Every structure is written in structure tokens, then in C-alpha cells.
Amino acid sequence: MRAFFRLVAVTVMVFGIAGCTSIPYYAQSLEGHVTIMTARQDVAKLIENPSTSEELRKRMEDARAIRQFAIDELGLPDNRSYRSYVDIGRDAVTWAVFAAPELSLVPRTWCVPVYGCVPYRGYFSREKAVEFARELQGQGLDVYIGGVTAYSTLGWSSDPLLSTMFAQGETDLAAVVFHELAHQRVYTAGDSEFNEAFAVAVETTGVRRWLRAAGDTAGLRRYEADRKRRAEFIALVSRTREELARIYAGSGSVDEKRDAKAKVIDRLRARYRQVRDGRWRGFRGYDGWFDAPINNAKLAAVSVYSDQVDEFIRLFDLCSGDYTRFYASVQYLGRLDKAGRFDALQLANRCYDEPA
């Protein structure tokens, strides 16, 4: 499975200190970000440098073409982001810590300057992420740590390409770049579900358009097959969340709810194996996710990146596939209160780029 949280876009960053108890956390964010920024190499110079390896040169050429496509065809920001490169020498750039109560699917949130409240905390050190996770577990919370392959400063700095963004190939690189630039195009503080679903919609429609423009019909078939599997994975998780929500809202004792929770998670794994060995013909790309512990935090983390994606893609279609109109519509929705934007998105029957 491609790292699901390669799409975590806003690792809490650098722009302000919110209380003395947060100083160590902000310090590690600032240090990690500055370390990456000081190691940047210009993409154009890497391509021109005769000492650059052929493999790295090809990656940089691909990345430059993807970056230009994002500007020309998707209306994404034309700035210095993703015009430099850093080899960070590890599999993840940050680690996101998610938490939820033992008998609730509502994720814990942390409020920070610029970004509003988000359902995770990001760390440039895996050890620090594990340390924080253990602290949360000590409070009786379910905890999940997800490795992140890219993050965004929303245009506050010139975000570089990272070696982690190239791990899954050219199509995945395009997906990450389109996704992260979408956050720079429209961002609504304090609504991670809205922001992430919007960025996934830009990523999805953008990759389709990019593959079609390249005439890569085989690549497009692979991408659509991957999306179909991901949709089925999300459907499995959503069904489990619905079952757990009923249990948590019920009248059983704590012990009874714990026992029922364990059985529901066992059923989730069984359903996955049935899908994997049936419709997926043995595709095992999600085995790692299911083989590892599953809890409320892990289930909630999936929902942040998936629950409203179909609605955003429908809105994109209502805007006739015009990115300028689509972005204007999303900006309009972002100005509504959270409940209002959710309802407007769910009930949309027109593009919101102009007054009704």
C-alpha cells in the first residue's frame, strides 16, 4: 500500500509560539524545517550539472515537467515551491500522531497558529513522535503514528521536493505535488477534513488529466485500479466506523463495549481478506495496514483524508472541469461556517463560482 499519510499536508510549523508548554514542540518543528530548507539544491542546476547521476537527472526532469503542468493545466500556484530538491536520507519526512478516546471515534485536535485546529501533531523525529504517543496512551487514549512523505507550509516558504516523494514512482510524485500545491491554492483554517478532501480531489482529477495528456493509457488504467481498491478500502473502514459508533453510543458497560470493539475490528480484518483474495485477486498492498494494530485513532485518521472526496469531485464536474471555477467555488464554501460548508457541499447542484 502506498503510504496513506503521504498526503498529510500541514505538519504543524514554525509561525508562532502558543504558550510556554508548546516551546519544545515548536522548537523541533522549526529545527526540522530549517534543516531541510538549508539542504535544498536547485532542480534546474541539478539537471544541468554533468556530475548529476542519470537517475537523479531523470527524476528532476520529471518533477519539473509535473510542476509546469500544475501551473499550465491545473491553475496551481506559480511560485518557488517544488523547484528545489532535498535528499533527506530516510523513508518519512515527518511522523503524524493521531489520538482518539478508547470508546469514541472523535479524534483529539490541537490548535496552532495559522492552521487552526488539526487532528494530529507532526514531528520531524520519530523518537519524539513515539514519546508523545506514549504520553497520550498513558492518558488512556487510542494512538496511531503515520509516516509522512510530504508536508506543506501553505506557501509561507518555498517547499522543496523531497526524496520521500519519489519512492512510489512518477504518477505518485504528480499526485503529491498536485495535492500539496492545492493546499496553497485554497486552505480553510481549522477544517482538516474539508482541506484534505479538496486536495485529494485536485490530486485525483489532476493525475487523470496529466496521464491523458501524456497518452499513458496503461498508466491511467493502473491509476484507476489503484483508486478503485482505495475506495473499497475506505468503504471497509467506513462500515467498521459505523458499527463502532453504534456500539459506543449504546447502553453496554465499558467492558462490553471493549469486547464488542475487538470483535468488530476482527470482522474488518476478515472482510479485508475476503476482498483481497476475491475481487483483488490476491493484491496484498494493504496487508501492512491490516496486520498492524487497528484502533479508533487509526480509523479516524483514514476518515480525515477520505470522507468528502467524492463530493468535491462532483463539484468539480458541476464546474465543467474548470479549475478556476472550481477553486472559486471552494473558496466560497470556505467562507461559510463549518456546518454550512458541509451541507452546501453535500447538497451542491451547481458550481458556486457565481451568486445564485
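That was protein one. Protein two is written in the same sequence-then-structure order:
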Amino acid sequence: MRYDKINMTVQGQKTGEAWLTAYLLDPVSTSPEKRRPLVIVVPGGGYQRCSDRESEPVAMKFLAMGCHACVLDYSVSPNRFPVALRELAMAIATVRDHAEEWYVDPNSVLVCGFSAGGHLACSIGTFWNRSVTYEAIGRTAEEVRPDGLILCYPVITAGEHCHPASFQELLGENAQPELGQAVSLEFHVTEDMPPVFLWHTVTDDTVPVENSLLLAWAMQKSHVNYEMHIYPSGCHGLSLATEETAGNRDYLLEPTCQSWVLMVQSWIENQRWKKR
């Protein structure tokens, strides 16, 4: 396995640095030129931090599926929208820049986001073709377009069922209401959104399941290709829902929800990769 780390800092960043860490499978002797999908993992943390439970352990799962994987440690508060969005856009473009060297299929670059990282992942899915995303980093819309999204208990809405702390950190305490509307993603879904795999739990009392339901309804109306799984129980922040990511917190161990990993593997293989 090869390991690379690339700085993703973009113009407008107030503090800290953003990094893309790549975990790359070695070519195999039976098919040395094989191009693999690559999944960029975007951890949650309420736009205050990047959770280590939703980063490298998840990347290792995608490696086990035969995908390359990256983890994006993006800018959080006091950096504001759209800094992290542009960093993710730059990460996608960077992967395509290295597609030949890394043996990546440039038409199979996916983003997997958790919680607030799910909001960021969904943001690139809805805003990839808007100038606010790509012009400031000197790229084109097609260079920053994700080919698929994997959204795990994502923050979506700034409305009735929002997670207020995420939007406060993303926009600032004194943000105008119209800015909240601008990043309430259920209002920005179009037919240009890439295919989506989405899961949530009914009993999530931090980011209510309505976030995913609102997104699903918006995707349904816009004829977006999506697959959704709603589990009857499980708290917020499950990650893989295994002992590895639960640690000594038993409430983060949820055997029923562990199936999302197998289902997303099947989804990736079946999508691989539909042209729009």
C-alpha cells in the first residue's frame, strides 16, 4: 500500500491547514493497469473538528472493498462557508490530477461523509457546478464533480429539524437567515446531483432522521439516482458501528447498523459506474 499526504489549503482560510491523506492499493500482477474507484472520506465533528472515528477506520474498509481511499481533514470553525467546500472540490480535482499515477478511475471518484461531513459531501454534490465552488480554486466544474455520494446520518437542513450547532460553526453566530437557506441542502437538489447512498437511524436525537428524509424527497422529485436505508435504532455518530470505532463507549456499538458497509460495497459495485 502507498501513502501520500497533500496540503489542500485554499484561499480564504483563516486558521489551520487542510490535508488530503491518500491510502492507495498496490497494482496486482494479474491486472497491473487496473483502475480502481477512489472514495474520499469526510469525517464529521459539527464543523468544529474532524472525528478520527470517522476517518482512517472507514478508509480501511474501503480499501478492503478494493477501492483506493483518501481522508480529507478539512477546515473547521472559525473558518466559514465556503472554505471547506472549496477544499473538498480541490481534493476531488487533485485525485483526478493523480489518476494515472495512483491507478484511479477518474470517472469513479466518490465522497463519503458523516454527520457535518455528510453536509459537506452533499454540498459538493449539489454545488459542484456553481462558480462559488470551483472558480476561486482555478478549476472547472467537471474537474470537481463527484461521481457518487455516500451520506451517513448527514446534516442536511437548516430548517425545523436542523442541528443548530453545525450551522453556527459553518456560518458564524451572526449569519443572516438567508445564508442558512443557502446551505439548507434539500432546497438545492437538482438532476445534476450524482448517485447517492444514504443511511440514518430513526432514534438519532442529535441529527434527526428528517434530515435524510427531506433529502430523499428532494432527490425523488428531481429524479436523482439514490438508495436509502433507515435503521430502527442507533444513536448519532455510529461510524462503522463496530467495536473498533465504538471503543469503550458501548452505545456506539450497534450490530444491526454494521450492514451499511456491505450494502455500500454492493452499491459501489453495481454503480461502477453509470454514466449520466
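The mean pLDDT is 95. Keep this in mind for the problem set.
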